[in-house]
Description:
Oligomer: single chain
Low-confidence stretches: 1-6
CATH topology of the largest domain: D-amino Acid Aminotransferase, Chain A, domain 1
Number of strands: 21
Structural class: alpha+beta
Strand order of the largest sheet: 15-14-11-12-13-16-20-18
Strand content: 25-35%
Distance between the termini: 56 Å
Number of domains: 4
CATH superfamily of the largest domain: ATP-grasp fold, B domain
Largest sheet: 8 strands, antiparallel
Helix content: 25-40%
CATH architecture of the largest domain: 2-Layer Sandwich
Shape: globular
Amino acid sequence: MGSSTAGESQYLLVFGATMALRERAVVAALRVFDGPVVTIARSRDARAAKFFDHVLLGDFSDPEASLTAVVDFEKETGMTPAGVVPFFDPGLMPGRAIADHYGLPFLSRQAILDSSINKDRMKDRLLAAGVATPRYVTVDGLDAVRAAVAELGLPCVIKPAAFGGSLGVRLITDESEITDAYDTVRGVIAANSATFTVQNHGIQVEEFCSLTDEVSVEVLTHGDRPRVLAVTDKSHGPRPYFAEVGHRVPSVYSERADVIDLAERACAAIGLDRGVAHVEIRLEPDQPPQIMEVGARTAGDGILDLVEQALGFSPYELHVRSYLDRLDGPLPEPRQAGLAALAVLKAPPGRIAAVRPARAVGAEVRSYEVFAAAGSVSSGQQANYLDREGYVECFWPGAAPESVPRSAHLDIAAALAAEVFEMDSA
């Protein structure tokens, strides 16, 4: 059950727990902490009000504004945080500032800055530690992009040095694509940097990793030795983009020792020593894996929900306990209950005329949710996490990864989208 604290004078402060497909972080916080659970939101109309005992008004992605909101709340109520737990990148530096002020456990500032919130520093740490990852070149203009492409060769990848969710990540296969690709990345940075107070507007060109498969690895980093909790198969949309469109747990690669070793060494190279980290790896059956990114926070896209469904324990709970310094006793042993998967719902390009409920779904469909409404416009491309109209979650009880076709959840999503979205014919 929960871990009691110093009574009602203290609370658990969490960042990012109300984002879509991260909501079960709230469930974990309530299971672990016996006391009020609090978050920070920018306005009173935020959906956070439905989940938390108190919602502090402030910019959750700005360290100074977040600390001010917490200090003002203490002056008003006398309450102070017993722990600060980040569930997404924008909460890392604000959480660090609050933890410093109140003397609470948290990741080091350097470990945060060396993670995927600054992909240049992340790459430097990985390469210096001998961890396999594609080379990169920092660029600050079209001439620098052309020079980087000449150095790394084609194909290559251009991306922001910050951001997640595949925002701005694009493949370049020909020199004629350079100008458009660079303009696209600059546009993504300009359009999204204010949303999460991203100060890093850098761009990098990265050597293309030709390995065909990708997994994410959820790694508990508490103390000296990281431990892999789960491995997830990932699926991507069409090139030249790298939008994630599906996930499956457990992965067909869950037992590969080199994958587990590489993920743990990557976390050690970044200096992560607290909470659950999200590590992305490219690989093939007979090829050595390579690290793509190391996130100093829990996974998004419902991946940890899939882990809980398939393996019988909550990584969110371990994450919260780690940040409270209450990770005592043996860790839970995975109890494979079946195969869990999530896939994105994508409407055809154009204006959505109506959203209709599915007439019937298979037994493997646990739930589905549609974000779009009549009148919404579906983009013709699937470039990042913003280009989706919903998702479907599936579960095959007792199934092993090899027993279910690797595209099964994607096929279910495609069929469901074809049924629920009626497009405007005009």
